[in-house]
Amino acid sequence: MAKTKVEDVNTHIYDIKNDDNYSYKIQKGLDKKIVEEISNMKNEPTWMKNYRLKGLEMYNKLEMPTWGPDLSVLDMSDIATYVKPKSNINTKWEDVPEDIRNTFDALGIPEAEKKSLAGVGAQYDSEIVYHSLQEDLAKKGVIYTGFETAVEQYEDLVKQYFTKCVPISDHKFVALHYAVWSGGSFVYVPKGVKVEIPLQSYFRLNSPESGQFEHTLIIVDEGADLHFIEGCSAPKYNKVNLHAGCVELFVKQGARLRYSTIENWSKNMLNLNTKKSIVEKDGTMEWVSGSFGSRISMLYPMTILKGKNAKMEYTGISFAGAGQNLDTGLKVVHSAPHTSSVVNSKSISKSGGIATFRSNIVITENATNSKSNVSCESLMLDSESVSDTIPVSNIQTNDVEFSHEAKIGKISDETIFYLMSRGISEEEAKAMIVRGFASPISKELPIEYAAEMNSLINLELEGSIG
Fold first, then answer.
1. What's the domain range around 230?
2. 161: which of 113, 353, 419, 440 is 20 to 30 A away, CA to CA?
3. Strand pairing of 325-334 and 4-5?
4. Do 291 and 420 sit in the same domain of this protein?
5. Mean predicted lDDT score pLDDT of the chain
6. Per the domain annotation, does 47 fall within a domain?
7. Number of independent structural domains in the chain
């Protein structure tokens, strides 16, 4: 029997496909009529429709990025930008339609909510289908709801922050996002409130030849504390799907926000997501990121250290397998004195996968007595794979401490031989080395999500069967 690639026959939970059973699916393409139709269906205020039209105008003006992976496979005339599932937003899982609920059950979201989460938002295609928040947090003034609900119920607060972190003109796919956004999460944590248990939003794309464009806006007020987890997945189809969400994060004076992401998009997905945070005096921003899926990813979380003593830490890993081009990294702007950034990035590539890490560290002339340390390690599991590190450093003052370290290598044959001499198979020996390489990332996640990340690594390491 000829060998068959695991990726062709794997029945892992992430590959669950429901029928493309929607309430409404907008015609493919992108024009003013489509943008206005999305806005009208949502019965939006005029100011939001105007943002959408401005986004469309900017999208048509801006050029496609040419410095990263080749995006010529994307044809917006083949993408439906809005798919409404046969469900409204619910506060009880039993009220979610059975086929959708079963998908989230298989992904473990309801069970995780019971064990380790203070609130959950679940999006299916273009709309939130479930949302919850523990009652004690609501009593403390914490707001956690779908972004569209926030536009309706907290309009003044949304208007104050919407597009203020990520401007519409940032790049072409941000402009696209603002034109057709749908779904997403809104979080406000009042001054001094510590959210002890994480909140999580999970985004599931089911419909083929479609896009997901959720908007996440989080405000952590002075002295407050929050850990927010984002999960993403989709089944595999033969044609391109698109993800171009946007995340705007505001960390106020003395506040702390940890934003953790485990992304396992299908390998026909173009993941062109945008994330950005603004951190004020004595605030702390922590990014924890795991990128495992997608055909192409271009993802570079950005942090502006705006206030004195603001801090940023980034811990990330990407795993590029056959047919994948994962172009990831980050940007940090130190614009105030005594700010600090620490970056610990790891990438793994196998079977011809391409893993690229880009960093852009800007330390302005105002950021005296600041510190930045960047560490990037890449592990290639075979001679077919590619790994590149592309650092950019723009240091505008001498009164700083800055360091950058990069390592690229392969698994040592001697190490494999040593482990095999102790009775360990070659396959498990490689897996042990990779898990050890990734352990600084997994230990930063809650235990359930560290286990998920390790299972994704094991899945990616499977070779062939039969």
1. 12-299
2. 113
3. unpaired
4. no
5. 89
6. yes
7. 2
Rg (CA), the chain: 22
What residues contact residue 422 under an 8 Å CB cut-off, 6+ apart?
Answer: none
Predicted TM-score (pTM) of this structure: 0.92
Listed residues 244, 266, 299: the one ending a domain: 299
208 with 237: CB under 8 angstroms?
A: yes
Residue 46, beta-bridge partner list: none
| Domain contains 327 | no
Within-domain flag for 159: yes
The separation between the first and the last C-alpha atoms of the chain, rounded to the nearest angstrom, is: 6
pLDDT band at 2 (very low <50, low <70, confident <90, very high): very low
Task: Look at 155 and 444; give whichever has higher pLDDT.
Answer: 155
- 459 belongs to a structural domain: yes
Which domain-ending residue is among 274, 299, 324? Answer: 299
What mean pLDDT do residues 280-308 have? 95
User: Which residue type is seen at 50?
Assistant: N
Highest mean pLDDT among 250-254, 388-392, 459-463: 250-254
